[in-house]
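Input record (Table S2, row 333):
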Amino acid sequence: MKKLLQLTLAFVLAVSLTACGSDKKEGEVKTTVIKIAFNQSVNHPQYIALEEMGKKLKEETNGAYEFDIQPDAILGDQKATAELVQSNTIQMSVVGNPILENYNKDFTAIGLPYVYDSIDHQKSVFESDLLDDLFTSTSSSGFEVVGAFTAGARSVYSNKSAKNPSELSGQKIRVMQSDTMVRMLDAMGGVGTPMAQGEVYTAIQQGILDGGENNQVTYADLKHYEVASTFTLTEHLMVPDLIIANTDFLSGMSEEHREIFNKLMDETMEKEFNLWEDSVDSAVKVAEENGAKFVKTDKKEFKENCFKLNDDLLKDNEAGKKLYDDIRKMSQE
Ligand code: GCU
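Output record (alpha-D-glucopyranuronic acid complex):
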């Protein structure tokens, strides 16, 4: 029922947004409004970085383009908004890497557990040209990846201790919607349960789940500490958040505007990385004030199991395996 309501809402909004048209006249300038779906709050570093990009884009294109960012998953969960981008109902969305594995399995390689050793390692990969071909590979589906954000390191949280695979055994932990994520959590000892982010709080509250796995920012933002107060620092996954954009919309830009857009996107990625660490500190503070406990753990066993899984997942995927090896080679450890 809830899903149906969400779908209806997304549909009504999408229709009303389209009905408004994406072009509007401001004085003599025709402004194209770029509608962007975002599944988190306006306090999130990714929202702040994108909002600033929108302002600069408007300035630097002399009002030819502006952003209309819809936060809090108003337009639906990430899977649904990727489809809205495909059909150009909206022009852009921020989606977790696992969503794109459903379009091209090579994306698996850049979102595997423990593939990045640190945020700096991840940043150097995003800033290199290593991912260029992967990011345009979805154009046959009607969109491309135009940028990548960090979402820090994800850890497991529940009401129980989860310091090693045997402690995690039997715990139903929500994961993002892809087979890789389910298999990852299973390899870590628990029971991976795929679900959209917006449904997790209630599912834990009702005992359908024991917990979830996410970064500290989302954990605090969505108040998951109210239903799962033990955050065990497994730091198993640094999954990229990808900014996707419709291909017709992109090819409709003049060369000059596209250059401005690309330059601003680079600056936006840089800004988001810079904001991330402070956001984690504030999130931990808020969660602790509300009773959450952050527990350190030895990651050895989790790592061993996950590295085995990574080899298994990539064994029949030559391109993915090469990407994975290239990312590991860029490790600064
Ligand atoms: C993080 C990530 C989101 C993702 C979410 C999730 O918050 O930044 O892109 O949707 O996790 O677990 O679904």
